[in-house]
Design a protein that fits this description.
Length: 533
């Protein structure tokens, strides 16, 4: 049976179809769950190489009046249009180099090799996530391009949005944070600084109307609130997300780096971007902490033995400490184990060191008079340590939040983002084929866990939707999509009770074309004035 990551959808489901409902959907649950992931892995005779490369395909479940409809359509990016017109891959992606574009002249192809790194045209195949910025919804990836979408029809709206036209960044994450007032924060690299690359924290205030009655979008108000210099001047860290609390930003600078020299060489010789990523296991992973009020870095050099993470779970402040929970891997080569050829091999199995586990790090904010052998972590609830070293930095060690559990695509009740919390939700990642085999509920305080799975099916990232006027962290529902390993056109929306981890209801559909895997998404409530994650 072929891996679901190798599926290509040839027929989208643009018009909504109604699902077969079992169970009872809560009356208060009204809105749209929109998810994003790769839906096409080949054009003509050309194929993508990596799990991050496939063309963005948007899936949506619309819940209203106890009924659910499903629709799906491709993001009509410039990349998608060019590949479709040429019937081959003519725009490079993370792990795939472009084939010559028959629509370009020989001179145009020749001149492309002499484009400066800051002007290279990146892909606008925004395949990773869907998130609001102000009152607009965007599909996002890890380049400096975003694509605006219509939340009701999934139609791609207008031209691509270039972040570098608003702030000095050459790329950004697809995992922003959203404050209760609608202010959005994200991070992006800049390669234009004379002193070397910087990691920039970007603020997008809510959209407003100026004194002349003109609407000013969040994008137009974007500004950089902090720039963190890269430790390695020609090799900035790769990162996929970052942490936030009420008073701090937490950036993890890990020794999986983007080698700018290799990138330029690879560009000129036609090799993919992935070949410019290097892993240095002998280097330390650093926690760079920024004061949100001042934009200044906390003058403590927190380091840990090398680890790699895609996803932060949550972070919060407690008694002079920062508690930082992440899905961590011991070996940063994990990103290079996601080639489609390997995932399609039934005998392929990822190495344990490249599989994600939930880990907690604790960063003490008061270390001035500490001795070198003193554990600076004074919280009784954790076994984490932090010790000042002879080099003057503070070495932190982590604690597993659960044993024997591969855990990723984490979500929480986002009303507790940046605050003390108890429960995280995610998927169990199977090392055989990197499949999302089970849904996981995790108590990060007691380390208890609950699993949900269905034979022959695969789950998606779980999204927690809080109930109106909820008083408890678990007041709400969990939403996720369900795929069939055997029937490529089957898809379902499943609702779980966060308390007992039992199924409340599901809506099942037969899509017009193959249903493909997704990475991330968002629930936008019909009555919500501000959409949060």
């Amino acid at each position: 049976m072929a891996s679901v990551w190798l599926r290509t959808c040839e027929q989208d489901t643009r018009e909504p179809i109604e699902g077969k409902i079992t169970g009872n959907i809560p009356e208060w649950l009204q809105g749209r769950l929109t998810r994003n992931g790769p839906g096409k892995v080949s054009y003509g005779k050309t194929k993508y190489n990596h799990i991050f490369d496939g063309s963005s395909y948007l899936h949506q479940f619309h819940i209203e009046g106890g009924k659910v409809t499903y629709r799906a359509r491709f993001l009509e990016s410039d990349t998608y249009k060019r590949n479709t017109k040429a019937n081959r891959i003519v725009v490079s992606e993370f792990g795939t180099s472009a084939y010559p574009d028959p629509c370009k002249t020989l001179f145009q192809r020749f001149m492309a090799f002499f484009t400066p790194i800051t002007q290279l045209e990146a892909t606008d195949n925004c395949v990773v996530n869907v998130s609001p910025i102000g009152d607009e919804m965007f599909a996002m990836t890890e380049t400096n391009f975003l694509r605006r979408i219509d939340l009701e029809t999934l139609e791609t709206l207008g031209d691509k949005t270039r972040l570098d036209k608003h702030v000095a960044v050459n790329q950004a994450t697809a995992h922003p944070h959203i404050d209760p007032d609608g202010t959005v924060y994200n991070m992006g690299n800049s390669y234009q600084a004379r002193t070397g690359p910087t990691y920039n924290i970007i603020q997008f205030p809510p959209a407003k109307t100026d004194e002349n009655g003109k609407r000013v979008s969040s994008m137009e108000q974007a500004k950089i609130v902090c720039s963190i210099p890269s430790t390695w001047k020609t090799c900035p860290s790769y990162y996929h997300s970052f942490g936030i609390t009420d008073n701090y930003f937490i950036f993890i600078e890990q020794p999986l780096v983007f080698n700018l020299t290799k990138f330029l060489v690879n560009h000129y010789v036609g090799r993919p971007y992935l070949g410019a990523i290097d892993w240095y296991p002998d280097r330390k992973t650093s926690f760079r902490v920024v004061n949100r009020a001042t934009g200044e870095m906390v003058p403590i050099d927190f380091v840990a033995n090398a680890f790699f993470t895609f996803h932060h779970i949550n972070a919060y402040e407690e008694d002079g400490h920062l508690v930082v929970d992440v899905c961590a891997m011991e070996d940063g080569q994990a990103v290079k184990q996601l080639f489609l050829e390997e995932l399609g091999n039934p005998d392929f199995e990822s190495k344990p060191a490249t599989m994600p586990k939930p880990r907690r790090f604790v960063l003490p904010l008061q270390v001035n008079e500490a001795s070198k052998d003193q554990n600076l972590v004074t919280l009784e609830s954790t076994k984490c340590t932090a010790v000042r070293t002879s080099e003057g930095n503070v070495l932190v060690t982590s604690e597993l939040l659960t044993e024997y559990q591969y855990f990723d695509l984490p979500r929480i009740n986002y009303t507790l983002n940046g605050k003390d919390y108890t429960y995280a939700f995610g998927v169990e990642v199977s090392p055989r084929g990197i499949q999302f085999s089970k849904l996981v509920k995790l108590n990060v305080k007691t380390k208890e866990k609950w699993l949900w799975h269905e034979e022959g099916k695969l789950v998606s990232e779980p999204v927690f939707v809080p109930a109106p006027d909820s008083l408890h962290e678990l007041d709400g529902v969990i939403l996720f999509s369900l795929m069939s390993k055997a029937d490529p056109n089957y898809v379902a929306l499943v609702l779980l009770n966060p308390r007992d981890w039992g199924e409340i209801a599901r809506a099942e559909f037969e899509a017009a074309g193959a249903v493909t895997s997704t990475f991330h998404g968002i629930f936008a409530g019909t009555k919500d004035k501000i959409h949060r994650l």
